[in-house]
């Protein structure tokens, strides 16, 4: 399976991306945006924000749909304290339905993720991750 082709197919189906801003940007504006948004630190920040949103939505849905009592949300606190833990937890949440929220809580802190080494024929821009057990 070529993940890059799959991602491309999905991105194409989304259609055109809405404009970032409603005002025209001059060259100085574009330079500042490139400096900020092109920075590795911003990419780490952005991924952490995505992970936080996944966790927030998952737990909210689990509580609202009655699969997790609200008081049990506090049991996830230990899993939310670090960027690495949030990355692992959000991945597990993406792979689980909200019906499994109580099981996810019972299993405790998910194993830390580690970067796998891609094979020689893997596209260079894909990073494969797995859970360390």
Give a structural overview.
There is one protein chain. This protein has 133 residues and is mainly alpha-helical. It has a domain at 35-108. It has helices at 3-14, 27-37, 40-64, 77-80, 83-94, 101-106; strands spanning 113-115, 129-131. It has a two-stranded antiparallel sheet. Helix 3 (40-64) packs across helix 5.
> Into which percentage range does the β-strand content fall?
under 5%
* pLDDT < 50 runs, ≥5 residues: none
Q: How many runs of DSSP E, i.e. beta strands? A: 2
| Class computed from helices, strands and strand pairing | mainly alpha
- Ends distance: 25 Å
Helix-strand topology string: HHHHHHEE
- Looking at the structure, what is the overall shape? globular
Could you report the average pLDDT, rounded to the nearest whole number? 82
Radius of gyration: 18 Å
Biggest sheet: strands side by side, in what order?
A: 1-2
Per DSSP, the total helix count is 6
The share of residues in helices is: 40-55%
Q: Largest sheet at a glance? A: 2 strands, antiparallel
């Amino acid at each position: 399976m070529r993940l890059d082709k799959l991602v491309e197919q999905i991105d194409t189906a989304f259609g055109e991306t809405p404009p970032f801003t409603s005002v025209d940007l001059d060259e100085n504006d574009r330079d500042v945006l490139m400096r900020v948004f092109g920075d590795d630190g911003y990419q780490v920040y952005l991924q952490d924000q995505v992970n936080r949103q996944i966790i927030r939505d998952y737990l909210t849905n689990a509580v609202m749909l009655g699969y997790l009592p609200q008081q049990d949300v506090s049991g996830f606190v230990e899993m939310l304290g670090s960027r690495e833990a949030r990355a692992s937890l959000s991945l597990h949440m993406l792979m689980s339905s909200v019906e499994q929220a109580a099981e996810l809580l019972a299993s405790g802190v998910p194993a830390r993720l580690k970067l796998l080494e891609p094979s020689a024929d893997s596209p260079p821009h894909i990073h494969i991750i797995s859970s360390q057990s």
